[in-house]
């Protein structure tokens, strides 16, 4: 099974020069989002397994096998949280971008259903998703929320982001107006155990969830997107937001085409 998406043409090349890059929210994933997250989960002691389903005919060459579904699944030792690499499985999209990682947690082991799920597309900076996973792993009760929406907004405004002038209690944007965090209606197919989110009629209000995205040029498409179900604990979203808005530089060999001219870079070593 090939964990990287077949259309990923910017896989990192060890021959490319290495740079310290900022801001991180526009730095992309260096073409290593799978490896970065997998290495972290292994370090945390999560167990992994690969699920491959396909169609095979007699005397078929291995390279001609048709894989219908493939998932790499990582499960925490207490089995209360898990992460799935779903990019090879043609997942649904956020902002026209395919989902790469889905992270979920449940209240206890008596139920097989997730209490909440969060979704991340390619080019979410790997450091940001790693910090989210470290925060998730450190919690005894991964499905119990601590604090309110202000935690998320305080995390980004502490790094110089600006409150949304139209919704100061529900959103913020970076100083270049390229990246956003917003609390509002979640997109279709975002899984959540809150029954109100599942059974609400189209004209009824549903529980709000956090969305984050980068759109370097208005109308030119998204660089990345992330979506958090309504039941994702606020402090975990705040950990994501804090890392996303951090002013600390990150190491990169591959820079996104849409943001190359907006990044500050310095040779590493």
Describe the secondary structure blueprint for this structure.
Layout: E1 19-22, H1 33-43, E2 47-55, E3 66-75, E4 81-85, E5 93-94, E6 97-98, E7 101-105, E8 116-120, H2 126-137, H3 150-157, E9 162-163, E10 171-173, E11 179-184, H4 195-199, E12 209-214, E13 224-228, H5 234-244, E14 250-252, E15 264-267
Antiparallel strand pairs: 1-14, 1-15, 2-3, 3-4, 4-7, 5-6, 7-8, 8-13, 9-10, 10-11, 11-12, 12-13
Helix pairs in contact: 1-2, 2-5, 3-5
| Beta fraction | 25-35%
Judging from the principal axes of the Cα atoms, what is the shape? globular
The count of DSSP E runs of length 2 or more, i.e. the number of strands, is 15
Overall tally of domains? 1
What do the pLDDT scores average to? 86
Order of helices and strands: EHEEEEEEEHHEEEHEEHEE
Largest sheet: 10 strands, antiparallel
Number of discrete helical segments: 5
The portion of residues assigned to helices is 10-25%
Distance from first to last alpha carbon? 35 Å
Q: Report strand order across the widest sheet.
A: 2-3-4-7-8-13-12-11-10-9
